[in-house]
Amino acid sequence: MSQEVRNLEPKQLWNKFADLNAVPRPSKKEERVIAFMMDFGKKLGLETINDEVGNVIIRKPASAGMENRKTIVMQSHLDMVHQKNNDTVFDFDTQGIEMYVDGDWVRAKGTTLGADNGLGVATIMAILESTEIKHPAIEALFTIDEETGMTGAMGLKGGLLNGEILLNLDTEEDDEIGIGCAGGVDVTATRQYNEEEVPQDSVGYTITVKGLNGGHSGMDIDKGLGNANKIMNRLLFDGFENFGLQISEINGGSLRNAIPRESVAKVIIAGMYDEAFVFDMQEVINDIKFEYKTTEKNLTIEIVKSDLPSKVMDLGVQEGLLRAVYTAHNGVYRMSADMENLVETSNNIARVIVKDGEISIQNLTRSSVESSKFDLANALRSAYELFGCEVTVTGSYPGWTPNVTSPILDVMASIYEKQNGSKPNVAACHAGLECGILGTNYPDMDMISFGPTIKGAHSPDERASISSAQKYWKFVLEILESIPVKN
Predict the structure, then answer these.
(1) Which is the catalytic residue, given 30, 146, 174, 461?
(2) C-alpha span between 399 and 77 (Å, rounded)
(3) pLDDT digits (tens, 9 = 90+) for 283-338
(4) Number of structural domains found in the chain
(5) What is the largest CA-CA distance in the chain?
(6) Is position 417 annotated as part of the catalytic site?
(7) Which stretch is the leader sequence (predicted)?
(8) What pTM, to 2 d.p., does this model score?
(9) Residue 79 falls in the annotated catalytic set
(10) Residue-range definition of the domain harbouring residue 357
(11) Given 30, 79, 147, 446, the catalytic residue
């Protein structure tokens, strides 16, 4: 772990972040980080609980003179998105994140940084450990599996928490105070297909799409970024229509909540079309690169000869697949009519896998309006069912309805303006925060979300601003001192 990161100010925050990033913590494999957090709380002599789904709760009494303030819940999630560049050798299950300082940014070497939501976790740890920071009674809530299902928040039972105010530390712009978020649902299409022998006089090719920015499938969905699965499908569709291209395998994307950066397909064409195919594909590639010249400067598309595969897809199923993925909506579906510049509904075609007679297409559909979320989910389901897929719609979680009359919002907005000389951006976001889910069992809890500036979350370009962390830390400390008294 880079010592230069530990030397950054505020040291309490960056040292706890470095400690946390030494612990592997992929979603659904949080055993080590749960044990780490349980040990942390117990060593401080604080009440430490591991609930039945894996969430960790640590309670700390109010500091002297703050006993009459409302109890607060400080909440962040323990898991992180695991993404790496193709040429990065790294084992997320065994290695800690390798960090370094790059100007005003902390980055990781070829992987996601884990600032989402590690900086929030580190903030709470630093406050729990401190003997000097003034604060009311705190219930620290560390949830699990936020990134791949929000099962920690969903499994948290009512009555376990006593706090009246929840501070969620999972917003990624330091001038933003979040008061609402989108819900989400997984749409997964699967079907089997027959494999055929490769025709004689065929030529094998491997098509690779890479170098895309990727990013958060909620926060970055409106930035005009390329989706590797959509781009690959466009190439395959053109090759099929013009040269009878046949697919052997496709492996595109990774996680549902990450805009796919890479896709690789193994295909064949008839040898008689070899030269014409390459020429035509280059024209298509040039068109795509021109379209994305502003947002995807590093986009690379390679078409190289390779060994012939042993089998290819049945042509009828292949045509259905290509037309369905072409039809399926990706990106912004509807902007909010109630909040300016807010994406209401979107879809990310996150994962396309074709191999050994099995097709899987994985989507994450988001919306701040439940009916719109399922409207788009049904549109996707229809596109996939029309070519014979079995479609499941699962893992639905609610959005968080904005509360513009929130008492803690007034407190925080006043502090922000005093510290920075400008008003904060009070907004709802298109990410899936846990507040909406937690609010189902704690409907009377006053909730707010904020955090330091983090860019490129869910991608290897993830980076955390050092100056923003300093601004954010000052904000946190005054918020803690300004929590209202109990009624």
Answers:
(1) 146
(2) 17
(3) 999 999 999 999 999 999 999 999 999 999 999 999 999 999 999 999 999 999 88
(4) 2
(5) 84
(6) no
(7) none
(8) 0.78
(9) yes
(10) 185-397
(11) 79
